[in-house]
């Protein structure tokens, strides 16, 4: 299964990807997580990406395409993968296609902007392993601590309300056209956000025939 998860920032792509990758036993590739690790480690890619990320803008396509190509060549991707937060522009989707990587399905999680803004204020992220939690809908077992690795959870800089609004504008302008891109290829499926994570997972599983 080569799956692309589409949806606005905060739509729940990361959370659903974590659930699906365990069920399908394939890796999730999140360019956001790869970039955050690069920023933290001060690598050349991280130095290039930092300013874009903090302002809510997209990192240039050539940087993303390079990161993704390298990651997809690793052996764990051979039997499938879930792409979370990539592609985010038409040129990124075209690069994936040009690389001969056939996507089986692009699944879009649909959520109203107003719900996203409200939701992002409660998001907590693990700076070490990238896991995502929410103070109300998906709290960690121990307050402020990552369930997976025990690190102290943080609020991402780009989850600040002004930056969220900027990221939503970027999403509508640059990423939403991907729905038409995959629809034209007969690969698009859409799922409406549900009141709970579990209910949204159930809708996704139904859409994917799992
Ligand atoms: P995310 O964790 O997916 O919300 O990504 C956080 C930030 O990383 C985004 O707001 C962008 O600045 C950058 N980023 C992640 N993935 C991409 C991508 N595929 N294309 C461009 N920028 C990206």
Give a verbal description of the structure:
By secondary structure, the chain is of the alpha/beta class. It has helices at residues 13-24, 31-41, 44-55, 61-72, 90-98, 113-120, 161-175, 177-184, 197-208; strands at residues 2-6, 28-30, 81-84, 105-110, 123-125, 132-134, 188-192. The strands form two sheets. The chain has a five-stranded parallel beta sheet, with helices on both faces. Strands 5-6 form a two-stranded antiparallel ribbon. The mean pLDDT is 94. The protein binds adenosine monophosphate. Adenosine monophosphate is lined by residues 9, 31-32, 35, 52-53, 56-59, 64, 85-86, 88, 92, 158, 167.
Keywords summarizing the entry:
210 residues; five-stranded parallel beta sheet; two-stranded antiparallel ribbon; binds adenosine monophosphate
